Each structure stands twice: as structure tokens, then as C-alpha cells.
Amino acid sequence: MNHSPLTDPRHAVRLAISAATAATLALGAAACSSGANADRPAVDTQSIDTQSIDTASVDAASASTDHAHHGSEPIAVTVDGVDYGFEQLPDSVEAGTRLSFHNTAPTELHEMAIFRLPDDEDRPLDELVELPGDELTEILGNPATVLLQAPGSDEVIPAVGDGTLAEPGRYAVMCFIPHGADPDEYLRAAAESDGGPPQGIEGGAPHFALGMYAELEVTA
Ligand SMILES: [Cu+2]
Q1: CATH of 9-219 given 1.10.10.10, 3.40.120.10, 2.60.40.420, 1.10.15.40
Q2: pLDDT, position 198
């Protein structure tokens, strides 16, 4: 057997998600500024340093999924990830609904990262995804839940939460994986980056910049 550092996928992705979210939000900022800035390095380290993913809460959320069989909602809706969007995603679900995620794409790693938007935020997600990365990061805050699935895998990786959306409100459903990134390389690099962004990963714009985002209403 050839054991890699990713023998425990939860451990790997627990690290991956904070790194992935940081890096791809920064990449998003770069992706949004087109043309003239194309020669700039894609990753803006300052916005990574100041972005707000709380690794402690990610750890706690991840740990809680070890006991996901006890007390969590049954899966009510499975959302498909495609190149590049979400399918089978309802417009609205009731609070307490648990979503699952199925990556149907042939080669791309996809994730379903879901953020509750602030109550005083009225702009449509179409507008928010065009904002500079640090502004978008601040609006999104920490994700309510993040599920990933590698292409061709049967295993859903619960990086944050278990897919349950407990609180009513307006949510953003997004994927931050860089276009064309190698799934194994990406997850491995993220696991080794100790909470920072994965280094040396080839890839383009985050998938949300290619249209992989959607709004979801969670009703009381
Ligand atoms: Cu994706």
C-alpha cells in the first residue's frame, strides 16, 4: 500500500478548505480585474492574510461530522455540480434542510460552499460576484457548510458542516476551485500548506467566475 498524507480525507480537506477559500477568493479578485493586470501574480497575499476563515470553527465543524449519524437531518436534496454550475438546486428550502452534493463533472474537482448573506445585503449574487475579492470575502464571511467531491468519487467530503442550513435567510452557493486545477494535486498542496493557500497549483479563474454560483433562499 502506498499511503499518502491524504489517507484521512477529512484531515486533508479540513486544511484544504481554509486554504482553498483564501486562495480562490484572492484569485477571484485577480480574475475580476481583466486585461491590464494580466501579468500580475494571481494571488494577492494581503487579501489572503486578512480573509476571515476561522480554522478553529472549521475544525470543530469538521469534527462534528464524525458523529453525523447522530442528530443530523436526513439528506433532503442532492445538488449536482457540473462544469460550471449547480443543477437540481431548489430556489428555496426550509430551514433545517440538509443538502448533499454530487460532482457529475468528468475531470474537475468541485465544491458546494454555502454562505448566509447579511440581512442588510440587498444586491443580487450576480452583482456580488463581480466585486473585488476582498469585498466579496467580507460580505460572505465564514461558510455555513462546504461539501467537496472529486470527479468520479462516491465520497462527499464534508469540509465544513454536513450540508444542513439551519438559519433562514438568503444564501450564496459557490465553487472556488480554480479552473483546470488537478484535483489530487490541489488537495495535496492544500493539505501541506498548513492553512495557507495551496502553492504552485496551476489553474485559472475560480469556478464561480465561470458561472458556478447560485442564490438559495432558506425559509423559516
Ligand atoms: Cu467547481
Answers
A1: 2.60.40.420
A2: 58
